[in-house]
Design goal:
single chain; about 130 residues; Pnp Oxidase, Chain A; six-stranded antiparallel beta sheet; 3 helices
Length: about 130
């Protein structure tokens, strides 16, 4: 199954890991990635101007861990390299999958980025090969 089909059909919880130039790691909960092209080689995340985005300015490498809902140890690990970012508010709004909860409405006024990544590798949640 192609990655875009997988993330469209399988619900779960995603975690993005980034590190700064000195290797100091951050992890954050992220929604499913967006696939904007025909293939599985590139994906994008909508990011706020927080630590994950800041880390990517000095270290383009990241990992995305996705745990399928319903219990168990099914999911995927994606190894990523940032290739570019956009600040097109209309495109970001079009791609947004949900409305922000009231507690996070202040985030709507902050700068957002559509950060594009090359997919360097895919592994299952548990084990070494896909």
């Amino acid at each position: 199954m192609k990655l875009d089909e997988y993330f469209t059909s399988v619900r779960g919880l995603g975690v993005l890991a980034t590190a700064d130039a000195n290797g100091k790691v951050d992890v954050a909960v992220y929604s499913r990635p967006h696939f904007l092209g025909d293939g599985d080689e590139e994906l994008a995340f909508i990011m706020n101007d927080h630590l994950s985005h800041e880390n990517l300015q000095s270290n383009p490498h990241a990992a995305f861990l996705y745990v399928e809902g319903g219990g168990g140890y099914q999911g995927k690990r994606l190894f990523l390299t940032k290739i570019r970012e956009d600040t097109d508010k209309e495109l970001i709004a079009e791609l947004s999958r949900r409305a922000m909860p009231e507690c996070c409405e202040e985030e709507c006024d902050k700068k957002q980025f559509l950060v594009h990544f090359r997919v360097d590798g895919v592994r299952p949640l548990i084990g070494d090969s896909e």
